[in-house]
Each structure stands twice: as C-alpha cells, then as structure tokens.
Amino acid sequence: MLTIPWEAFALTGWLLVAIAAGLHALLNLPDPRAAWGWIAVTLLFPFAGPVLYVLFGINRVQTRARQIVQALPDELDTPQRDDAREQIATRARLEPRLPLVHTGDSVTASPLLAGNQIRALSNGEEAFPPMLAAIDAAEQSIALATYIFETNPAGRDFIDALGRAHDRGVDIRVLVDGIGELYSIPRAVRLLRRRGIRCARFHPPQLLPPSLHINLRNHRKVLLVDGRIGFTGGMNIGSRYLIQEPSRVQAADTHFEVVGPVLSQLASVFSADWYLATGEAWAPSCWDAEQPAEGGSICRVITDGPNEDLDHLRLVLEAAIGSARERIRIMTPYFLPPPELEAALTGAALRGVQVDILLPAKNDVRAVHYASRHKLGRMMESGLNIWYQPPPFRHSKLFVVDDDYAMIGSANLDARSLRLNFELAVEIYDDAFCADLHDLFNQAIDASSRLTPDTLNQRGGLERIRDAGCWLFSPYL
Question: Which residues are paired to 374 by β-bridges?
C-alpha cells in the first residue's frame, strides 16, 4: 500500500494556504508594492507568512466601518438650499477656483452655500464663553458631538449649562467618542445622564461581543443650537484649552463660530452620527428652517472616514493645493501627509508657490514628532518652509490657499485622520475670512523658529534611527 509522508501533506497544505493568501493580497490590496510584499511573505515563510498576512495585511478598518455605517433613513436628510439660480451666481463669484469647486461637487455631492458668517475663536478663553452662552440661550434643541469631553472645571461648566437647558425643556443630544471619553474620570456621559440628558458613545470598546478597536474614532467636533448658531473646529471640551491658566497639560487651539445656511450641512452630519451610535433618527424641526444669509462666506461641509467617505478630504486638499498661485499655509499638530499630499505640496513649492508649514516644537505624541522629522529634510529641499511653534502645544488645524480659500475642521494631516477616523471639515471661500487667518499665521510665524536643513542634520545617529523607526509606523500613529 502506497503511503504519503506527512511532510507531503504539510507542504501541500502550506502551498494551498499560501496561494490563497497571495491571491487575496493580489485582488484586494490597492498598492502593488504592498501586494508584492505580502505575496512574498506568504510564499517565503511557511505557515507563518499566511498567518502574518491575516493578522496584519487585511484592512479590517474599512470592513468594520462599512458594518457600522449602514444605510441611513431618509428622514435624516436635512434640507439644503440648492437653488439653481443661486448656485450659478455663487459659481460666478468663484470663477478662478472652478476646478476646485468641481472637485468638491464631485466628492461631496453637496452644494456650496453662500451667506455664512465664520468667526475664529482662539483657545478656550475665546471659544468656551460663546459656546456656553449659546447653550444657556437655547430654546428648542442642542446637538453636541466631541471626541474628548473632560470632567475637569471647564468640562463641568458645560455639563452644568446642559443640565440647565434640560431643566428648561430643551431637547438635547450629546455624542462622545467611546475612546475619547476615557481621557477623564468620572466619565462625562455618566455625569450627563445623571442630569437626565440623552447621551451616546460612538463605537465604545466592549468585551462582549469583543470590540476593542482603537481606530474608527469619531473625531468630529460640533455644537448646534436651535438651528441658528453652531461651533466647529479642532477643539475638544476641557480645561487644557484654557492656556492662560497654569496647567501641566495645555493645548492652544482655534475653534469657529458658524452662522448661516451651512448649519444645515453640519446638522446632517450630526444626525447621521447620532443614528449610527443609537439607531435613533433625530432631526429637530428647527434644523429644517432655511437659514438667513448672515455673511460673505461661501461654505461647504466635507465628511471623511474609512467608509464611503474615504479620501474625500485628501482629494479636495490635493485640488486646493493644485489651485494655489501664490501661497499655501498649513497649521497642524500632526504632520505625516500621505505620499499624494506630500507630492502635491512639494510640486507647489517647486513651481514657485510659497508653502509654510507650522508645527508644534513639542508634541504631545512624541512618536509623531519623531516620524515627521524623518520626512522634513526632503520636503525642505523642495522649498517648503517649516516653522516650529513654541509651547504650549499647538493643536490648531488650519489650511489657507492664496487670499480666498480656507479649510477648517477636525482633521490632522496624518494617516489616522485621513484614513482611520471619522472627520469633518468646512471649506470656505471668503477674502475677509482668509485675511483674518493670514493675520493669525503672521503672528504665529513671528513667534516661531524656522527649521533649517543644518539644524535637522545636527541630529545624532541614534536620533536618526529613532526618527526613521517611528516613521516606519507612521500609517498607524
């Protein structure tokens, strides 16, 4: 009787598994270099290669995101003014930026809305009082979404204001990210629920069924009151943003007050996020009202996330960079742009556009700071100007092109924001608003130190290895 040695069975089993894993990589990975790498790993490392691919090569982030983001009910669609004649007039005002406008049209499927008023608010000292005043003046509804909701004195001020509004009969919903909430003890959601306020956690970690993902975070920050005023930007809720008070942990930041028709788009984003977290379709009638034109800003909301919104923000940023004629200014706490954005920025600098990147001199995530330093030398060689802002830690996310286009919101220029988180941005066409942001940039540059290739080259060998090692993990930082 012919017997087949067990080694032959093992070899056959390994080849079948390796071929299956290699075919999966070939058919599903978007980057040919990554596909080649994983195919090689599955073939060169018996059994261990396919296991490594299953553990680290398959993109579960987008799969899980699609499971979270199911079809949203039609009743969540907040009406958005899209009058054809008005759109024609709006586009006529934006003639020099029409390619950028068309990119936003295609990516977002949302109209540009004229007549908005946007006001920059620096740090908690300027942002928190009008936010609290709006809550105290609320008569119908309040929607608040934030990544971090601290329960220190500043956070307690918001909890108390929301409690007073609830006692007046205001309909309130508060959405806090399930990981961001863990920054404080006691938890904000617990304290708010004690006041009778409806709260929800977005994708919280749990043991049963197991869900311990640190990705798929809702990083958006939105406060909407009565359909008449809103706030958005990069600022969470907490005392760390009060930089005039001595504190071990501080973060300078810029938030924005929003009035006008674009509030309807912000309301749609909150409604969808609330539904995803709770299954409740909540869209108060006051959000349906057409907002009066209050200012000269033409705006549009851009949502980004590891679902059907993936790469929306990156595509619009690339188009904006490509439209630049004179200058591009970026302020961000975390700067690890994907290759496409890095190429767009270096290409702009090489064609004579002034590109200024403002980063914090000391970062609250050191690995990001080190990884960023590994890339900055090559970017400076292409003509980018890199500035380091002095402490406190600078958390603002600002983007300005020439004198008429800006983008604000919650996203950083790194893989976590552009591929792993749910983010929100508002693009703004407005000369006066951009002039205000340029003043802010000028003040920041005056207080900053410029990074030079000589300074970067002074790093020792161990520092270079550390920076390069952190850079290897930049897609996950």
Answer: none
Three-class SS of residue 414?
Answer: coil
Dihedrals phi, psi of 144, to nearest 5 degrees: -130, 125
Using a pLDDT cut of 70, give the percent of the chain over it: 84
**Residue 191 burial (C-beta neighbours within 10 Å; 0-12, 13-18, 19+):** buried
| Both tokens assigned to 83 | 């009058």
Residue 299 structure tokens: 């705006």
The residues, ordered by sequence, that sit 6+ positions from 342 with a Cβ below 8 Å of its Cβ are: 375, 379
Residues 68/218, Cβ–Cβ less than 8 Å? no
Non-local CB neighbours of 441 within 8 Å, separated by 6+ positions: 329, 331, 356, 358, 398, 400
Q: Is the pLDDT of residue 72 over 60?
A: no
What percent of the chain lies above the pLDDT cut of 90?
A: 64
Distance, CA of 119 to CA of 180 (rounded, Å): 26
Sort strands 398-401 and 327-331 into parallel, antiparallel or unpaired.
antiparallel
**Which of 239, 402, 222, 262 lies closest to 325 in space, CA to CA?**
402
The one-letter amino acid at 191:
L
Over residues 217-243, the pLDDT tens digits come to 899 999 999 999 999 999 999 999 999
Distance in Å from the first CA to the final CA of the chain: 59
Peptide bond into 130 cis (omega under 30): no
Cite the DSSP H helix spans in 188-300: 188-194, 263-278
CA 305 to chain centre: 8
Tokens of 29: 């990975």
Q: Tokens 């390994």 belong to which residue?
A: 14
pLDDT in tens, 295-317: 899 999 999 987 767 789 999 99
Distance CA 304, CA 313 (A): 6
0.85 exceeded by pTM: yes
Phi and psi dihedrals of 364, rounded to 5? Answer: -80, -10
Using a 10 angstrom Cβ sphere, with 0-12 exposed, 13-18 middle and 19 or more buried, the burial of residue 289 is middle
Nearest CA among 206, 182, 217 for reference residue 64: 217
Residue 192: name the closest of 227, 138, 146 by CA: 146
Phi-psi region of 115 (alpha: psi -120 to 50; beta: other; left: phi over 0): left
171 closest CA partner among 201, 130, 141: 141
Distance CA 88, CA 143 (A): 32
Instruction: Give the tokens for residue 309.
Output: 């919104």
Question: What does the pLDDT look like over 108-119, one tens digit per residue?
Answer: 989 999 999 999
